[in-house]
Amino acid sequence: MSSLLKQLEPETLQEVAARLEDRPAEEILAWALRTYKDSIVLACSFGGPTGMVLLDMIMKMAPSTPVFYLDTEFLFPETHALIERVAQRYGFEPRAVRPELTADQQALQEGDRLWERDSDRCCEIRKVVPQRQALAGYGAWITGLRRDQASTRRSTPVVSWDQKFGLAKIAPLANWTEQQTWNYIVEHDVPTNALHNVGYPSIGCTHCTRPVETGEDARAGRWSGTAKTECGLHLAPRRDATQSPESAGNHA
Questions:
Q1: What does the pLDDT look like over 119-160, one tens digit per residue?
Q2: What percent of the chain has pLDDT over 90?
Q3: Which 8-state DSSP code applies to residue 18?
Q4: How many domains does the chain fold into?
Q5: Three-state DSSP class for residue 150
Q6: Is residue 252 included in any domain, yes or no?
Q7: How many other C-beta atoms lie within 10 A of the C-beta of residue 147?
Q8: What's the pTM?
Q9: Does the annotation mark 208 as catalytic?
Q10: Which of 50, 121, 125, 170 lies 20 to 30 Å from 132 when distance is taken between CA atoms?
């Protein structure tokens, strides 16, 4: 890590966030790309429109920026189809980050259909731990969080220190609206997940995502019937989050 990156302590990032709060998303993204250079990565789920906007911006500004997605082995076929389409459109290959346990191994170790019995544990194994491994060695990661997506995201800074993963977290579209997001997509002809057209505004794993009904919250289709609203990637670290990736994959 460069000496410049070492200077960007949480307090410094707060000052940067305040300075960039009302700046255009492209300017926030340009600051991050300029500051972290080859030590920044985009995490794109290929399930939400905001991530696709960021991907399009990055491919125009710094196309060599690495991009990864969490392949939980439970992604929709439409999500995989979008990944293939994007790879052809922009001429790059997003990196698939997979859990240490295959779906079958997880069933043997944790019991069948873990997502129904303990969805937090399933997300920890298939999302949180793999993401921690994927971000290791980077100085910053870019995420498609928006404040209007959920109550848990309303205070999302455009720039912050990510305690959970131990690096800077950049959310250039934090203060965008759903309408702004889709306006950009239409204007720039950005590819999106086909499931958006059949009632899926928020798309995760097949077992834990359903289409939403008219009048429902956009994220009502995620972990429907439970109090769960987040997979854990954007929540404050739990007490066990400091354990090693290896141990985190084998203990509750």
A1: 889 999 999 999 999 999 999 999 998 998 867 678 899 999
A2: 74
A3: H
A4: 1
A5: coil
A6: no
A7: 18
A8: 0.86
A9: no
A10: 50
Residue 174 lies in a domain: yes
- 67: tokens are 């991009």
Q: Listing from the earlier edge strand, what are the strands of the sheet with 67-70?
A: 95-97, 67-70, 40-43, 140-142, 167-170, 159-162
Going by C-beta distance under 8 Å and a sequence separation of 6 or more, which residues neighbour residue 248?
124, 128, 129, 132, 240, 241
H or E element at residue 54: helix 49-61
Please tell me the distance from the alpha carbon of residue 166 to that of residue 86, in angstroms, as a whole number.
Answer: 29
pLDDT of residue 236: 67
Q: How far apart are CA 81 and CA 135, in angstroms?
A: 25
DSSP codes joined into one string, 80-137: HHHHHHHHHHHT--PEEE--SS-HHHHHHHH-TTHHHH-HHHHHIIIIIHHHHHHHTT
State pLDDT tens for residues 4-46: 444 588 999 999 999 999 999 999 999 999 999 999 999 999 9
Tens digits of per-residue pLDDT, 226-248?
766 666 576 666 544 333 333 33
Confidence of residue 217 (pLDDT cuts 50, 70, 90): confident
Give the Cα separation of 137 and 135 in Å (integer).
6
Strand partners, 140: 40, 168
- Residue carrying the six token digits 């994220």: 219
Domain span at residue 226 reads 3-247
Helix, strand or coil for residue 68? strand
Give me the pLDDT at residue 140, please.
Answer: 97
- Report the CATH number that the domain containing residue 74 is assigned in CATH: 3.40.50.620
Residue 206, domain member (yes or no):
yes
Question: How many whole angstroms separate alpha carbon 199 and alpha carbon 195?
Answer: 7
Is 12 domain-assigned? yes
